[in-house]
Amino acid sequence: MEKEAWRLEKEQMIKNFHVWNKDAVKGQIVFTGSSLMEMFPIEKWVKELGPNAPIVYNRGVGGYRTTDLLPILDACVFELRPRKVFINIGTNDLSDGSVPLETVMSNYDQIITQIEEKLPGVIIYMMAYYPINYDAATEEMKPCLLIRTNEKINKANELVAQLAAKHGQRYINVNAPLMDEQGRLKAEYTIEGMHIKPKGYRAIFQDIMTYVKE
After folding, report:
1. Is the pLDDT of residue 125 over 90?
2. According to the 3-state scheme, what is the secondary structure of 46-98?
3. Pick from 195, 161, 183, 172: nearest CA to 31
4. Which of 4, 16, 38, 204 could form a disulfide with 60 if both were Cys (CB 3.0 to 4.6 A apart)?
5. How far from 48 is each of 25, 36, 38, 141, 176, CA to CA, in Å?
6. How many other CB atoms are found less than 10 A from the CB of residue 13?
7. For 124-151, what is the mean pLDDT?
8. In sequence order, what are the residues at sequence separation of 6 or more whose Cβ sits closer than 8 angstroms to the Cβ of residue 49?
9. Looking at the predicted structure, is the pLDDT value of residue 121 above 90?
């Protein structure tokens, strides 16, 4: 029942996107991906910069994998006809030990290809996956983080960088402010070892804005 409620919640979110997109300013900047994007209050914070700030839309959907994003690219990207797309998708795939990295990257490749075909000239910023912190994780989260390790994340980031190069798009890594001396997500920035608190997003906000404004 809980899974069905989650599914219905996400379907409603996509319906909302379609409605909101009708009134949105086209040709602006879109952030899309899974929960680590959905939870980033980038749209709110940019609006707070004032009337001369860039226009940013967040179309992240928590819990979604690469295979989930592919069929909803119209709601999350195409309808907005953005000139720039920031994307962070695939971390939920990394949490599933039965999904090879090659499969994740093949799906990601399809996503980028579709965006490029629909939006010629678009600039895509493929974001490095954020680190995790097993030692700061809740007991409920620890089994997942035995699969989604920082070693696996680092390998996946290498593949994302290669995929960006293949497409002539941008790979960006803004993780440095989030990391402790061991390369883990700082304990004070994480909710349960994986997701990030607002103060963690605030630590990378200025770095992100450098790319938004360029």
Report:
1. yes
2. HHCCCCCCCCEEEEECCCCCHHHHHHHHHHHCHHHCCCEEEEECCHHHHCCCC
3. 172
4. 38
5. 17, 21, 18, 33, 25
6. 17
7. 97
8. none
9. yes
Residues near 92 by beta carbon (within 8 Å), at least 6 away in sequence? 34, 35, 63, 64, 65
Q: Is the dihedral of CA 138, 155, 121, 201 positive or negative?
A: positive
Residue 209 has pLDDT above 80, yes or no: yes
> For 171, how many CA atoms within 13 A lie in the half-sphere containing its CB?
15
All domains of the chain in start order, with CATH: 2-213 (3.40.50.1110)
Q: Are 26 and 80 in contact (CB under 8 A)?
A: yes
Q: Which residues, in sequence order, are CB contacts of 162 under 8 Å at separation 6+?
A: none
Instruction: Say what the pTM is.
Output: 0.96
Report the SS3 class of residue 163.
Answer: helix
Q: Which of 105, 144, 131 is nearest to 190 (CA)?
A: 131
As a whole number, mean pLDDT of residues 82-94 equals 97
Torsion of CA 127, 55, 113, 175, to 10 degrees: 0
